[in-house]
Amino acid sequence: MANTLALVVLLVAGYAALASATTYTVGDSQGWTTGGDYNNWARGKTFAVGDKLVFSYVNKAHTVTEVNQSGYDSCSGTNALSDDDSGSTTVTLTTPGTHYFICNVPGHCASGMKLAVTVSATPSGSTPTGGAAGDALKAPAMGALVAAATGALIKLAMS
Ligand SMILES: [Cu+2]
């Protein structure tokens, strides 16, 4: 019985992973640094509430400063919503709308260290458009599989 329980746990965990939020590494292997084009990086990606952005950089060499649109447009961190220079900054996108990030080291934002992401209210995995379509199709199928497997196991346990 222990083995069958483990199988159910694995199936349920798999289902949860498919439906869970996405973690994006900003700039991919390049990370968060000067010379990047972060709006080019963001193009074509869909961001949803619950997704995470991971900024990777040399600590103190850059900052991840969340600002409003005017701070973004003027490269000013004066009215920052949050600020970190630890070298590894994870931001969870908790609200829909556009989120703005800049590097607050003088000159860096102006030379391209700025990122704007538009976050949709729909959690990724249930969005029927764009890159999430595959997940949207997979998730119900996985749910049916979990249900079928659970049913079969209950029959086994009762026989
Ligand atoms: Cu910087």
SSE blueprint:
Layout (H helix, E strand, L loop, with lengths): L1 H18 L3 E3 L12 H5 L4 E2 L3 E5 L7 E4 L1 H6 L7 E3 L3 E5 L4 E6 L11 E7 L12 H26 L1
Parallel strand pairs: 1-3, 2-8
Antiparallel strand pairs: 3-6, 4-5, 4-7, 7-8
Helix pairs in contact: 1-4
The structure holds copper (II) ion.
Copper (II) ion (CU) binds next to loops.
Short description:
The protein is of the alpha/beta class and 159 residues long. It has helices at 2-19, 38-42, 69-74, 133-158; strands at 23-25, 47-48, 52-56, 64-67, 82-84, 88-92, 97-102, 114-120.
Keywords summarizing the entry:
single chain; 159 residues; alpha/beta; globular; binds copper (II) ion
Could you characterize what this model shows?
- Helix 1 (2-19) packs antiparallel against helix 4 (133-158).
- 35% of the residues lie in helices and 22% in strands.
- It has a 5-stranded mixed beta sheet.
- The chain has a domain at 21-124: Sandwich (Immunoglobulin-like), CATH 2.60.40.
- With 159 residues, the chain is α/β, with parallel strands linked by helices.
- The protein starts with a helix and ends with a helix.
- Bound molecules: copper (II) ion.
